Amino acid sequence: MKIRPALFLLATLAMAALPVGYSHWNAAQLDARAKTLPAKMGKVKVATESLGGWGNHSMSVVRREGSGEAELHETQSDILIIRAGEASIVIGGTIPDAKKTTAHEIRGSRIEGGEKQPLRAGDILHISPKTPHQMLIEPGHTLDYYAVKVDAR
């Protein structure tokens, strides 16, 4: 009869296991990842730390210390959750000097005819595929955020 308790224990453990694809980060874990970003800062003044990828989407922690290029993702939406800092985003319009940089990615130096909006901690943005956007950061300022990239289906 020792088999029944062992089977019960195995069944309980199986039910308690987390589902495949589930991920959870607490605030301390996210802060620790964010603290690694300044050391990764490149010449374009942006650093990212991937949190992972799951099928049609991925998540990252991002820090910007300077303005970015104008960009357009042909097949991905961006969801940005601003953690700290301040900046502006130019959204919409056109990228006059657009160049394809990688598959489904277009970049350029600026946006013409877009709308400039302020960004602050607590803001959440959804940027649809094929929408030009550009982060503008004043000298001495930074912007920290979470980025979720979702492939359009």
What does this structure look like?
- It is a single chain.
- 15% of the residues lie in helices and 44% in strands.
- It contains two helices and ten strands.
- Strands 1, 2, 4, 7, 8, 9 and 10 form a seven-stranded antiparallel β-sheet that branches.
- A hairpin with a 2-residue loop joins strand 1 and strand 2.
- The mean pLDDT is 91.
Helices and strands, with pairings:
Elements: H1 3-16, H2 27-35, E1 46-54, E2 57-64, E3 70-73, E4 76-91, E5 99-102, E6 105-108, E7 115-120, E8 124-127, E9 133-136, E10 143-151
Antiparallel strand pairs: 1-2, 2-10, 3-6, 4-7, 4-8, 4-9, 4-10, 5-6
What structural category characterises the helix and strand content? alpha+beta
Q: SSE order, as H and E?
A: HHEEEEEEEEEE
Summarize model confidence as the mean pLDDT. 91
Q: What share of residues is helical? A: 10-25%
Output the number of helix runs.
2
Radius of gyration: 20 Å
Indicate the low-confidence ranges by residue numbers.
Answer: none
Profile the largest sheet: 7 strands, antiparallel
* 3D shape: globular
Strands, total number? 10
Taken as a percent bin, the fraction of beta residues is: 35-45%
What is the distance, rounded to the nearest whole angstrom, between the alpha carbons of the first and last residues? 53 Å
